[in-house]
Amino acid sequence: MSGASDGAEANWILRHPALKQMKELQVGDSEQIHAAFLVYMDLTEVRRWKEVSCVKIPDLQAVLLEAQEKDGGPVHTILPLPVHQSLSHRSIRQVLDRGFPLLLCAVASDSTLVYQRMTDGLVTPDPPVGPFEDVGRRQHRKRRQQQQR
């Protein structure tokens, strides 16, 4: 293999169509574009989400991703954000007002991705899943049965 082809292979990221599309949105923040590209690659190559596309909200100067977790599923908006970048309530409100479920994705400098589902208002948690026993009540019942004997 020649040295020229090694350099070309190493720069495949720079030629990736999604990265080119993100740059064409003219966000101006290269760190946010880099974060968006890492999230794009995670969604498409690792998680196999469908119909992943890039959009821009002019007021935010950020690249948003829209995608479906599975064919025919609801569209989600994903907001990639470098971990050190702050985000205001107004910014979150702008994205939530688009009407799609929102995932905020914090992108660390080592490319670690952490997704957080954002909602409009409070959401009650799902009940725990699994075989649970009320040990305290069970022990109380045993003591009461022993006392009755």
Automatic annotation (TrEMBL):
Keyword tags: tRNA processing
Gene3D superfamilies with a match to the protein in the record: 3.40.1350.10
Bias kind Basic residues: ranges: 138-149
A GO CC term assigned to this protein in UniProt: nucleus
Keyword tRNA processing: yes
Region (Disordered): 125-149
Annotated tRNA-splicing endonuclease subunit Sen15 domain residues: 38-127
GO molecular function terms attached to this record: nucleic acid binding
A single GO BP: tRNA splicing, via endonucleolytic cleavage and ligation
Family: Belongs to the SEN15 family.
Annotated protein name in UniProt: tRNA-splicing endonuclease subunit Sen15 domain-containing protein
Taxonomic source organism: Poecilia mexicana
